[in-house]
């Protein structure tokens, strides 16, 4: 079982490193938001892996709080990004066909 825990830990570490790189070079706010949301999920998995390894259950409430914070953070960024003009990588700021970046109803 120790080999499985080490392999899982190394995979989580590799995922976390790749997500930090993605957060750093993400061209849009949505790329960074998704990378940070997945980084929170990787952190939850790492804490869960530690809990399985040690057998201590004191970290389980922290997992619930961390997962809730990740959810609230992802929803908050999604609401902000829906009103932002930084949605496309090319930077034209269009909200879609026939819509301005600040026009949420599609009416002109």
* Class by SSE composition: mainly alpha
Net shape: flat
Give a count of the beta strands, DSSP E runs of length 2 or more. Answer: 0
How far the N terminus sits from the C terminus, by CA atoms, comes to: 62 Å
Largest sheet: none
pLDDT averaged residue by residue: 82
SSE pattern? HHH
Unreliable parts: none
Helix content: 55-70%
Task: Give an overview of the whole structure.
This protein has helices at 2-25, 29-54, 60-83. The chain is mostly helical and 108 residues long. The longest helix is centred in the middle third of the chain and has 26 residues, at 29-54. The N and C termini lie far apart (62 Å). The model has no long low-confidence stretch (mean pLDDT 82).
Structural descriptors:
108 residues, mainly alpha, 3 helices, 0% strand
Summarize the structure.
Helix content is 69%, strand content 0%. The chain is an all-alpha fold and 108 residues long.
Strands, helices and their partners?
Blueprint: H1 2-25, H2 29-54, H3 60-83
Helix pairs in contact: 1-2, 2-3
């Amino acid at each position: 079982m120790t080999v499985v825990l080490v392999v899982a830990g190394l995979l989580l570490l590799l995922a976390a490193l790749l997500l930090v790189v993605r957060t750093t070079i993400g061209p849009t706010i949505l790329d960074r938001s998704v990378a940070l949301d997945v980084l929170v999920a990787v952190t939850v998995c790492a804490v869960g892996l530690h809990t399985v390894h040690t057998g201590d259950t004191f970290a389980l409430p922290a997992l619930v709080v961390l997962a809730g914070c990740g959810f609230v953070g992802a929803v908050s960024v999604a609401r902000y990004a829906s009103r932002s003009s930084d949605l496309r990588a090319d930077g034209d700021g269009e909200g879609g066909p026939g819509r301005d970046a600040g026009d949420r109803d599609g009416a002109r």
